[in-house]
Specification:
The protein is of the alpha/beta class and about 500 residues long. The protein has 21 helices and 20 strands. The strands form 3 sheets. A 16-stranded mixed β-sheet has the order 1-2-3-4-7-8-9-10-11-12-13-14-15-16-18-19. The protein has a two-stranded antiparallel ribbon with strand order 5-6. Helix 8 links the parallel strand 2 and strand 3. Helix 3 packs antiparallel against helix 4 and helix 14 packs across helix 15.
Length: about 500
């Protein structure tokens, strides 16, 4: 009897309607994150589902012209009622009508955060708004809305005696500030922006995005920046000494640090490594002409810094890899999830060899970095046994994403036949080794970057390479093998980048 009852229970189908409201709430929240359209469809299935799904669907809303239009209140009043009752987070762009946007925001009773993104206005458009235009005093002063600003142009514009940044953005609410690179690049220090940033002491996340060599802040005597938790500097011309850093910068709360095209040697020599012990994410790369003769010193300092950090989760480095012992990476074996470890040399010149991690070091990493799921490395077949190198990569138990940089097998003066694609054939051989006897998790995505390919690139410019390029033969290629989420099958594609040589040629 017991066996029969168990059989009947096991054969009975279970539908979503049989689940508890708490479990359905978790399921629909997960569905919202992966497919918002499917969530909207689920709302239509039953009255019970509508009651559960509606607060989830309207929790975060992106305003658009249709939602803020005055006619919406007449023709679709339920939408505004749902916004008023359930919405807590709103995303909005600067090109919406400020009056209508503010009218809708004023009706949202539970609003707790606003994510505002600057959109450069079209020449014929008169619509443009700032956070101060669309947030009422109630939101700013009483409800204390958390404000996230994205795409803000990095410029130095004071309108007479007024600081335009201070006029446009309520500093007391600002918690995240991500800048857009200026067009054209800055030629003077952004004084008005520096003043605005110093006043915005609640900012946790700050992304500075300049171009070229970049510029830097010139601080007044008693100015001090907020204690950022996440700091990203791109093309910031760091020239602060130790005394200036102690006086004007606060790294006591830093958890995420990104330095791209920043002079790393002056930065590392001016800061106290003890301030960075709690870092979880570190990303350092500098391919500019900033002090290239001091890159060896920079690599040594990076090694010292990383040995003082307690538990990195993500590490992305470009350095002199031969001068960086892997024992610093092994210190983070229990926490490291993402590792990108590349050399300055790269693969942009087929006449040079690119330093490659020794196989014994790669094997040591595969045995210790048990939770690493993503890795990016250089592999020059001229400096290692490629098969042994690839076999070591197969031994990482949790690894499912690989980005491997390697050199083209083409040579500019060799004769090629239409039916032969040497780099593609070499990539197929590489993938064959990687896919055979993979330990632990199966591969999700493998990227093979050949010859220094970039999404936007200036290709090799010698006469021989130009001739090959004119025939559609390139040294710079990128092949991606990716697993289809639905079928589980692997598919390979040849990524197409944007060839920027015509700009360089002036044609």
């Amino acid at each position: 009897m017991a066996a029969e009852a168990t059989s009947r229970c096991s054969s009975r189908s279970i539908s979503l309607s049989d689940l508890s409201p708490e479990l359905l709430d978790l399921i629909f929240k997960h569905l919202r994150d992966i497919d918002s359209r499917a969530l909207a469809d689920a709302r239509q299935l039953s009255r019970g589902f509508e009651i559960i799904v509606t607060p989830i669907q309207f929790d975060t809303v992106r305003l658009n012209e249709r939602i803020i239009a005055p006619q919406t209140e007449t023709h679709f009043p339920r939408i505004l009622r749902h916004l008023s009752s359930f919405t807590r987070h709103v995303n909005v762009k600067s090109d919406l009508d400020p009056v209508n946007t503010r009218r809708v925001l004023d009706q949202i009773r539970r609003l707790s955060s606003l994510r505002w993104r600057y959109v450069r206005p079209q020449p014929d458009s008169r619509l443009s708004s700032t956070p101060s235009d669309i947030l009422s005093l109630s939101h700013v002063n009483i409800k204390n809305i958390r404000l996230y600003v994205e795409g803000l142009p990095l410029e130095d514009f004071n309108c007479g005696l007024r600081n335009s940044y201070l006029q446009a953005i309520p500093t007391s609410n600002l918690v995240s500030l991500k800048m857009e690179s200026p067009t054209p690049p800055l030629t003077t220090r952004p004084e008005s922006f520096r003043e605005f940033l110093v006043i915005s002491q609640g900012v946790d996340v700050f992304h500075y995005n300049d171009r070229g060599q970049g510029t830097q802040f010139s601080f007044q005597e008693h100015e001090r920046l907020p204690a950022f938790k996440e700091l990203s500097l791109r093309s910031y011309d760091w020239n602060h000494d130790t005394a200036a850093v102690w006086k004007h910068w606060d790294f006591s709360q830093i958890r995420h640090l990104t330095l791209i095209d920043v002079p790393l040697c002056p930065f590392l020599s001016s800061v106290s490594f003890s301030d960075f012990q709690q870092l979880e994410v570190l990303h350092c790369e500098d391919f500019t002409t900033h002090l290239p003769d001091r890159r060896r010193e920079t690599t040594i300092d990076l090694y010292k810094l990383i040995t003082q950090i307690r538990a990195l989760q993500t590490l992305r480095l470009i350095c002199h890899t031969e001068l960086f012992p892997v024992d610093a990476l092994l210190l983070h074996a229990k926490s490291l999830r993402v590792l990108s470890f590349r050399d300055y040399v790269g693969f942009g010149d087929e006449t040079q060899t690119c330093p490659t991690m020794q196989i014994k070091d790669l094997v040591a990493l595969s045995k210790k970095l048990s939770y690493l799921h993503t890795i990016e490395l250089d592999m020059d077949p001229a400096l290692c046994d490629p098969v042994e190198f690839l076999c070591a990569l197969r031994e990482f138990p949790w690894l499912d994403t690989l980005i491997l940089h390697t050199q083209t097998v083409l040579r500019p003066h060799q004769t090629l036949y239409d039916t032969i694609d040497p780099d593609f054939n070499a990539v197929l051989g590489t993938l064959s080794v990687l896919l055979r006897y993979k330990r632990g998790r199966p591969w999700r995505r493998i990227t093979i970057n050949v010859g220094g390919w970039k999404p936007i690139m200036v290709r090799r410019i010698s006469e021989a390479w130009r001739e090959l390029n004119s025939c559609g033969i390139y040294a710079e290629r990128c092949f991606v093998l990716e697993r289809d989420r639905v079928t589980g099958k692997m598919h390979i594609r040849d990524e197409k980048g944007v060839d920027n040589n015509h700009t360089r040629d002036g044609s």
